[in-house]
Amino acid sequence: MGKSREDNRPVMQAGAVPYRVAAAGRIEVLLITNSSGRWIVPKGGIDPGNSAADQAVLEAYEEAGVVEAEIGGEIGFYDYLRGGRVHRVRLFAMLVRELARDWDEKHRREREWVALEEAIERVAFEGLKRALMGVSAGKRAAA
Question: For the domain bounded by 9-136, which CATH number is listed?
Answer without folding.
Answer: 3.90.79.10
